[in-house]
Specification:
It is a single chain. The chain is an alpha/beta fold. The protein has ten helices and twelve strands. It has helices at about 20-30, 45-55, 70-75, 80-85, 105-115, 135-145, 155-165, 225-235, 245-260, 265-275; strands at about 5-10, 35-40, 60-65, 75-80, 90-95, 100, 125-130, 150-155, 175, 185-190, 210-215, 240. The strands form two sheets. It has a six-stranded mixed beta sheet with strand order 2-1-3-5-6-4, sandwiched between helices. Helix 1 packs across helix 9 (about 245-260), helix 5 packs across helix 6 (about 135-145) and helix 9 packs across helix 10 (about 265-275). The termini are far apart. The structure holds 2'-monophosphoadenosine-5'-diphosphate. 2'-monophosphoadenosine-5'-diphosphate (ATR) binds near residues 156, 193 and 195. The site of 2'-monophosphoadenosine-5'-diphosphate has 15 residues, from helix 6. Pathway: Metabolic intermediate biosynthesis; chorismate biosynthesis; chorismate from D-erythrose 4-phosphate and phosphoenolpyruvate: step 4/7. It holds the Pfam family SDH_C. Homodimer. Involved in the biosynthesis of the chorismate, which leads to the biosynthesis of aromatic amino acids. Catalyzes the reversible NADPH linked reduction of 3-dehydroshikimate (DHSA) to yield shikimate (SA).
Length: about 280
């Protein structure tokens, strides 16, 4: 019989997920007894698999592509940020047997940018690229940092506009096309498109970043992404990939499950080493 509490990440694909490594490191560091694994779930089978996991005593799940909307539907209760995002990346079994859904992606991004990298968000002019699943989770926590404004650019403009509309009550946010972007307009650009996964770059005009502007790609890998290379060519003041966000969102999930906040810095170093 298993004595350790069971956790997992559900996705498809999930083979390259760093989450098992990250949570094992958190558990070791904090002395928590738990087991965490990655599991590939067939499309259309998310609810069935999650029901089985929790009915067999599983304590918590991370959810990755393409199941964050399914997890949103699955949860019995939702945090405010998950409700606003319409997407869930963390499920936690409650004392009464119900399942709580949260979304830690946005807070993970904000912690990495603000606390780890030391980039200011308040009062800044921010451009977010993409209007898909990855961006839904970050707009609420970003707007809570009181930026001057957030523009969401997308090839399909209507998606950017309707996404921005969902967050209007939290601050100045609007959708736009790539063609509509003009010179020196932004202090920070965050790439939330899936373009980097295919070695691609969104169609960005030159000189849209201010002189001391920063660029952040939510993707990460052993090599700089095409977006990071673009930003360096635009003489960005600082450029980062999304590895820190990955570890910070995991730390927030760990905290929800175990009530303990791990130290993220050594775990970021560990994951970085494993990429090379
Ligand atoms: P995810 O859940 O990873 O966000 P998604 O919901 O399929 O995936 O969204 C992918 C996002 O990346 C979309 O905003 C998409 O733009 P469109 O809605 O216009 O398709 C964007 N995207 C993907 N490849 C891109 C590319 N080569 N250039 C620009 N945007 C791209």
């Amino acid at each position: 019989m298993e004595t350790k509490d069971q956790y997992a990440v559900y996705g498809n694909p999930v083979k390259h997920s760093k989450s098992p490594q990250i949570h094992a490191a958190f558990a070791e560091q904090t002395g928590q007894q738990l087991h965490y694994r990655a599991r590939k779930i067939e499309l259309e089978h998310f609810a069935e698999a999650a029901t089985k996991f929790f009915s067999h005593g599983g304590k918590g799940l991370n959810i990755t592509v393409p199941f964050k909307l399914d997890a949103f539907e699955f949860a019995d209760q939702l945090s405010g940020r998950a409700r606003r995002a319409g997407a869930v990346n963390t499920l936690a079994l409650q004392e009464d047997g119900s399942v709580y859904g949260d979304n830690t992606d946005g807070i993970g991004l904000v912690r990495d940018i603000h606390s780890n990298l030391g980039w200011e968000l308040s009062g800044r002019r921010i451009l977010v690229l993409g209007a898909g699943g990855a961006v839904r989770g970050i707009l609420g926590p970003l707007l809570k940092q009181r930026p001057a404004h957030v523009l969401v650019a997308n090839r399909t403009v209507s998606k950017a506009q309707s996404l921005a509309k969902n967050f209007e009550s939290l601050g100045h946010v609007a959708g736009c096309s790539y063609e509509g972007l003009t010179s020196g307009q932004f202090d920070l650009i965050i790439n939330g498109t899936s373009a980097s996964m295919r070695g691609d770059l969104p169609p960005l005009p030159h000189h849209i970043l201010s002189n001391d502007g920063c660029a952040y790609d939510m993707m990460y890998g052993a090599e700089p992404t095409p977006f990071m290379r673009w930003a360096a060519g635009e003489t960005a003041w600082a450029v980062s990939d999304g590895l820190g966000m990955l570890v910070e969102q995991a730390a927030e999930s760990f905290c929800i499950w175990r009530g303990v906040r791990p130290d993220t810095k050594p775990v970021m170093d560990l994951v970085r080493q494993s990429l090379s």
